[in-house]
Structure prediction request, 111 residues.
Amino acid sequence: MEYNAENWDLMVLEISKRFKVTADFDFMLFLIGIQELGQGMKPYERQEKMDLINLGKCTLLSEQGYLEAGGRDEEGWPQFKEVKSLKSLTPSFMNHLLKRAAYDYLKVQLQ
Prediction:
């Protein structure tokens, strides 16, 4: 299935059912962050949740060629460096880019 609004909504619904939550875009990014951190589902503090959402974004931007993974810090968190300017992306294009990449990432994870 290719990314489009209908397929995105179906994926959000599937994830909502699977995790017994009302999933939104940030929750999808949160799941990607958890997957990439590799420490599994557990209770996270508010700041950790925000960091996991950011990790999800960075992972997707890395897959799109805007960031490059650069190892892990002393706490085991992946590090990234910018290789293509993000400043040139409009917020709406960035959102579209991230949604499409999240769809592709999660489609593989859900199989």
Notes: The chain has a mean pLDDT of 94. The two ends are 12 Å apart (CA to CA). Helices lie at 5-19, 25-37, 46-63, 91-110.
